[in-house]
Automatic annotation (TrEMBL):
Superkingdom field: Bacteria
Lineage: Bacteria, Bacillati, Actinomycetota, Actinomycetes, Jatrophihabitantales
Keywords linked to the UniProt accession: Dioxygenase, Oxidoreductase
Name of this protein: Phytanoyl-CoA dioxygenase family protein
Record organism: Jatrophihabitans lederbergiae
PANTHER family cross-referenced by the UniProt entry: EXPRESSED PROTEIN (PTHR40128), PHYTANOYL-COA HYDROXYLASE (PTHR40128:SF1)
Length: 286
């Protein structure tokens, strides 16, 4: 971790448990019409031509994704908690808020470090990226910029900023230009069920575009872990984590959006008084 900025634990999690979480989440996306479970096996996550996600209470829908029993069994797997307890040198805990990601074709996650988003409690906080199903590179898995966690200039400037207080957007929209200026290689892999990628708050990362030629959605999870004795980031821990960035009511539902995520719009969508998504031409296929 110190040398490379990440640990890639291939086959670390129980495959059956991860697939159960995938099935649980995809079942819910099938209900709102995001995937076509009539003409294709649901577990293939083939995108449907029409979606009804705008017609449901998105607050309740996204909460059901995060709170699902099978999904919880993955992100709170005893093996994972025990690993972090050993890695951190004391009892570990996960953030109360979790980030399941459903990425449609043509979508991606912008270039950033986690520090500006999750370190208001402690900087000794660690991210996991868990593919909920096989994620070959054509489906847009995570990619990391090699040894970027060692760049003191970046760590002491961008890495110490606060995304909420400063309306911070993505670090860059040009992966090739950023690589040329910072050095290192962009690294990724064909991820398999059971794999886990761990990294700290200063590692530059993003995702490849989901370029599936057969319109497979990408399903993955981000969760954060820290020492239980360290102060928690109040945005993502406690009795109510449903709207951690404050302001107008929003829900975590990644998808296309206009702009550079300065107001979290790539990942957090505005909802109306009934909890329904406000329609925007840039979101998803709507």
């Amino acid at each position: 971790m110190a040398d490379e900025g990440y640990l890639y634990l291939a086959g670390f999690l129980d495959e059956a448990a991860v697939l159960a979480a995938r099935e649980e989440i995809l079942y819910k996306f099938a209900i709102v019409g995001e995937i076509d479970s009539v003409n294709h096996p649901m577990m293939d996550a083939v995108l449907a031509d029409e979606t009804y996600v705008h017609e449901v209470n998105a607050i309740a829908f996204t909460e059901s994704l995060r709170a699902g029993i099978a999904y919880t069994n993955v992100v709170l797997a005893p093996k994972l908690i025990e690993f972090f307890s050993g890695f951190l040198g004391g009892p570990a805990r996960a953030f109360d808020f979790r980030w399941p990601r459903f990425m449609r074709t043509g979508e991606f996650t912008g270039i950033h470090c986690d520090g500006p988003y999750i370190t208001r409690g402690t900087r000794n906080v660690w991210s996991t990226w868990i593919p909920l199903g096989d994620v070959p590179m054509i489906n847009g898995p995570i990619m990391i910029l090699e040894r970027s966690h060692r760049l003191e200039t970046l760590r002491d400037t961008y890495g110490r900023r606060d995304a909420d207080r400063e309306n911070l957007g993505w670090l860059s929209e040009d992966p090739i230009g950023l690589q040329r200026s910072l050095g290192g290689r962009w690294l990724s892999a064909d991820f398999k069920v059971g794999d886990v990628l761990l990294f700290g708050p200063d590692l530059v990362h993003s995702s490849l575009d989901n370029n599936s030629p057969v319109r497979h959605a990408r399903l993955s999870s981000d969760t954060r872990y820290q020492l239980a004795s360290d102060p928690p980031d109040e945005r993502y821990n406690g009795a109510d984590t449903s709207n951690p960035h404050g302001g107008p009511r929003r829900v975590f539902l990644p998808g296309k959006a206009a702009g550079n995520n300065e107001d979290f719009q790539d990942e957090w969508k505005l909802v109306d008084k009934d909890g329904r998504l406000r329609r925007t031409p840039a979101f998803g296929r709507d």
